[in-house]
Structures are given as C-alpha cells and as structure tokens.
Amino acid sequence: MKGAALGRCRNGFPLGQSIAAARAKKWLRWTCAALAVLYPACLMGAALALRLIGEKWWVTGAVLYLPRIAFAAPLPFIAGFSAALGLYKLLWTQLAAILLILFPLMGLALPGRAHRAGGAKVVRVLSYNINTALGGLDGIVEEIDRYSPDVVLLEEIGSRERLESSLASRYASVLVSGQFLVATRFPIVSSYDPERVTLRGRSHSPRFIKTAIETPVGRIAFYAVHPLSPRAGLQGLRGGAGLRRELLSGRLFAGTNTTKFLDDADLRALQVQEFAEAAAREPGPTVIAGDTNLPDLSYILSQHLSSFQDGFAKVGSGFGYTFPVDYGRRPWMRIDRIFANDKLNFVRFEVGRSRASDHLCVVADVQAKE
Length: 370
Hints:
Elements: H1 2-7, E1 9-10, E2 13-14, H2 15-52, H3 58-63, H4 75-84, H5 91-105, E3 123-129, H6 137-147, E4 151-155, H7 161-168, E5 173-177, E6 180-184, E7 188-192, E8 197-199, E9 202-204, E10 208-215, E11 218-225, H8 231-238, H9 243-249, H10 251-254, H11 259-280, E12 286-291, H12 299-305, E13 309-310, H13 311-315, E14 336-340, E15 344-351, E16 362-368
Parallel strand pairs: 3-4, 11-12
Antiparallel strand pairs: 1-2, 3-16, 4-6, 5-6, 7-10, 8-9, 10-11, 12-14, 13-14, 15-16
Helix pairs in contact: 2-4, 2-5, 4-5, 8-11, 11-12
C-alpha cells in the first residue's frame, strides 16, 4: 500500500496534479518565448509603419505625437517572465527591443560626432518658438542671451513691440514678418514673404519667411518655418465627449472625427513642401530652422526634408526633445529643428533649458564646408 501510494505521487503532488503543473509550465514557457520573439518584431513593425505611413493614416499620425516610451511598457514583464522561466537564451530579444525603442522609436543620438575645423569661422543660429511670450518676455531674452547666437529666428512671437525693442538693443538687424522675427549681428541683404498656398480651393498662409544674411562664412539663406500644428486635429479625435467615450462607443476606431486631423496633415505637408522646394533651389548655403511640428519618423519629414542635414542627427546627443514643457511636463518629442544644405557643416548642436515657453529652443553652430 505504501509503495502504491508513492507511485501515485510525484514531487510531493498527486500524479494528475503533477502532470497538469508540468503542462501549465510548458504552456507558460511556450507563450513567453513567443511573446519574447514577437515583441521586438512588433516594435520594428511600429517603427516602419510610422516612417512609411505616418500622417497618411490617422492612427499612425496620432501615434507620432504620443510619448514613445509607452512602447517599453511590456518590456519588464516579458524580460522578467523569461528569466523566471529559465529562458535565458531568449533575453537577447529584449536587448533588441531596448535598442529598437531607444534608437528608431525614441530617437536617441550618441555623443562624440562633432568635429570643428580649426580656425574656420562659425555662425551660431538659435531657433525658438516663444509661444507669444506667455511665459514672460524676460525669460525668453535671458535664454537668447545665454547662448549669444549670431542669428536668432523666433516663431509665434505674438506682440512685437517690446520684443523687437529688446532685441534691437542687442542685434544690428531686426526684421519682423507676421509670426516670425529675425535678429542678427550681420546685415540682412534681402527678405521674402512667399505667396499663399491653395489646398482644396482654400487659400492658406505658407507659414515661412526667407531672409538672406551676409555672414562671416558667406551669404546664407535662412528659412524661418512654422507649419501648421496638429493640435486642433488631435483634439478633434477626442470628440466633444472625451477620448474615453470615443473609445467605448467605437467612434474613434470608425474614424468619425478624423477629417480635421487628416486635412491639417495635408496642409502641413503642403507648407513643408513649399519651403523645402524653395530651399532646395538656393544656389548657396541654406539653413531651415523652426518649429516644424514634425516628430521623428514623420512621413512628411522624410518625404520633403531628407535631402537636408538635420543638425541634431549630425552632431547632437541624447534625445533632443523640445516639446511640450509647459505645466512642468517633461518633453517627449523633437519637433524644433535646424537643417542645412550640403554647403554647410554642423559642428555643434544643443537644446535649451528655459521653460519660458512651451518649447525649448535649439542652437546650432555651422561652418562653411571646405
């Protein structure tokens, strides 16, 4: 009797329970292994969808403007279960997931790539969306003084009088046009306000200006840009009752409130195309700077601006996030950018620190290409 009882037990459990436990563990290991492999594959798919589809579909277009750190939510659970179940050989998949999150999805740039040509002259450019100076003009001016740029390009300036007089005491040339202000230590040779653009029979501002400035590295064409924000379209996706009700009702997935978002994306693409094509026609050194409203992996960004050097991508480090920083939030996207054509070299790039605006400024040093 005693031997028979022992025969019906295994590992201290009745035989049936032992078999069930073994099957459950096997199923857990198989499920965890599948998730470990599928997770980085899904991350790669998400990065490709954002890059190749982006603003053409409201789902990927909206995800572009969300914090990318959310893609890391499954990581600790999958890695923890893999280790607990002894699937150590599959932990490389989670390392691959980390790299996919940090680099293509979150846009991490490694330091140590800047090379300044000794003796060559440098022009420092600062671009700043000051949000109509709602956070106080003094903070805006202090941030500009901190970097002492040779060329200042401001967007969304709001009231011009006090700002213009403050910068006129610091810079030899100051030009204001609509929402833009250009201040520089050097002579402004010419300026150009482009004609309005037409989309679906309606006329819109192109939301950029061009100034030609005579600098120590030669005459540079500067494009100050601020294409349409996605903010109104993103708010439209929430509907009048809020995001939760839109989700529960299914209206969000049906695309009921997507028209405004997609129309604004089309207009933003047209505005970007206008200044990108104009800058591409410039015969000499050219800089494009401003609040582009285009996050990393944006389809519009890659479609129209990939032929230009991105200062942060060339010589920046970290994530370079610039927005949003109001209400004490940490920024989660990089939409404020400085580009240059192949007649200039970036030798330094930095993101500002002041929270005087809901954007951080961006600063770049450029040299003439030898």
